[in-house]
Amino acid sequence: EAEAAAAKAEQERLAAEAKSKAEAEAEAKRLAQERAEAEAAAAKAEQERLAAEAKSKAEAEAAAKRLAQERAEAEAAAAKAEQERLAAEAKSKA
Fold this sequence. Notes:
Residues 1-94 are annotated as: Disordered. The protein is mainly α. The chain has one domain (1-68). The protein contains 1 helix and no strands. The longest helix is centred in the middle third of the chain and has 92 residues, at 2-93. The chain is rod-shaped, with a radius of gyration of 40 Å.
């Protein structure tokens, strides 16, 4: 009877040990999953930040190009107006 009680106690101890090991493994798995999700979210956020940075850089370059084009057109118009003024001045002198 004592041996049976000891065997039962040992069986219960082993069962409790197996249960706590399984719980620890499940907890470790859950934490690893959470870490993987956090890393994926961080990677996605970094990707979005880089995409936004690239977009704003492209927009800034497009704006600079547009302004340069407008400046070139304004300078061409000013040069044409000056040329016409000089031609009119020469014509009136003639």
